[in-house]
Specification:
The structure is a single chain. By secondary structure, this protein is an alpha+beta fold. Strands 1-2-5-7-6 form a five-stranded mixed sheet, with helices on one face. It has a two-stranded antiparallel sheet with strand order 3-4. Strand 3 and strand 4 form a beta hairpin. It is globular, with a radius of gyration of 12 Å. The two termini are 19 Å apart.
Length: 96
């Protein structure tokens, strides 16, 4: 998980097994290998706590991977219809 703090925080959350990949599906390309997603490894509980903290800062979120998207759903940030799949990997963007 990585938090980019600027005018509006941008939070990148991806599963460890997805980091380092470039996902492609037709015109859709998502590079999960660079600095944008390269952050600290955290437990699911730590990720939940950090997402809640960041949500209070008017953040936007990028979730990539089964576990990351599931956490977003459990916290009520994402609904099923807001999830796409690229190469079978669930992806959700949250702009609040």
């Amino acid at each position: 998980m990585k938090v980019h703090e600027s005018y509006r925080w941008v939070v990148a959350v991806c599963d460890e097994d997805v980091f380092g990949r470039v996902l492609r599906d037709g015109k859709r390309v998502l590079d999960v290998s660079g600095d944008f997603f390269k952050g600290d490894a955290m437990s699911n509980e730590e990720i939940r706590e950090e997402i809640i903290r960041c949500n209070g800062e008017d953040a936007t979120f990028n979730f990539v991977g089964v576990d990351s998207v599931l956490i977003a759903k459990e916290l009520g940030l994402v609904k099923d219809e807001g999830v796409i799949e690229i190469e079978g990997v669930p992806v959700a963007l949250v702009l609040l």
